[in-house]
Design brief:
Elements: H1 3-43, H2 60-66, E1 72-75, E2 79-86, E3 89-98, E4 101-108, H3 117-127, E5 132-134, E6 137-141, E7 145-158, E8 183-195, H4 196-202, H5 208-211, H6 214-220, E9 228-232, E10 237-238
Parallel strand pairs: 7-9
Antiparallel strand pairs: 1-2, 2-3, 3-4, 4-8, 5-6, 6-7, 7-8, 9-10
């Protein structure tokens, strides 16, 4: 290859490398600016949120950024779950999506616990008087969100069944109600936030339950753990 041809070749190669470098730099700048803007969205104290530091329609990536520092428990195509606790009660933060858009979220216990009612008490402390009292929970209604809170009995361990029990009788008005001796009760709790638009769309679906994922059924309160009674005797355990 002659000197001039070699010079032209290296000049062309250098210009192509420069173009690729500029493109790479431009993409990196866009990504950096996008992440910076997203960071401001979830950290701005003046922003209004629908649940924690998220809003309906957030993508999974935006939710994960909003929950930075939380340990992730599960991530699939339509759900992201983080470990959490409320008043020393271990629970999960659940976010559910459709087409990568957030539409429901909340707190659920992942196993029966003795003090799940603390989650309900916390919801009352933060939200005040509910809009409606349901047969199995409480409901708050805002412009953008339905908020549902409930605790239900899901485990009862009976360690002993004495021959006699305190029933009250003539002293019923004087005696306080007592937990039967040897009974250990555990509860499940849910404190859910549902996008109003998602809820309205449910009215247009022929079979609403078919539209809900497993975790959305838990958040809506339509799926509950069956109550199991376990009897412990001196010689055996019976359920």
């Amino acid at each position: 290859m002659k000197f001039k041809e070699r010079l032209a070749y290296f000049a062309l190669e250098g210009s192509q490398t420069l173009v690729m470098f500029r493109k790479t730099l431009w993409v990196a700048s866009v990504l950096f600016i996008g992440c910076a803007n997203l960071g401001r969205i979830v950290s701005d104290p003046n922003q209004s949120y629908d649940f924690r530091k998220t809003r309906w329609g957030f993508t999974q990536e935006m939710v994960r950024l909003a929950e930075q520092g939380k340990r992730m428990h599960l991530k699939t195509g339509n759900v992201v779950i983080f470990n959490h606790s409320i008043d020393n009660i271990k629970c999960k933060i659940v976010y559910t999506f459709k087409d990568n858009r957030l539409r429901a979220a909340g707190y659920i216990t992942d196993k029966p616990v003795k003090s799940a009612q603390n989650i309900i008490k916390r919801s009352l402390d933060e939200l005040g008087e509910p809009t409606q009292i349901l047969n199995d929970g409480m409901l708050w209604i805002t412009d953008n969100t339905l908020i549902y809170s409930n605790a239900y009995l899901s485990r009862v361990d009976i360690r002993a069944i004495p021959e006699y029990r305190i029933g009250g009788g003539i002293l019923s008005h004087l005696l306080q109600t007592r937990e039967p001796a040897g009974h250990i009760r555990r509860w499940d709790g849910v404190w859910a936030y549902i996008d109003q638009e998602f809820y309205e769309e449910m009215h247009e679906v022929p079979v609403p339950l078919d539209e809900l994922s497993f975790y959305e059924k838990l958040l809506f309160g339509v799926l509950k753990r069956n109550t199991i009674y376990t009897y412990y005797s001196r010689y055996s355990i019976q359920q």
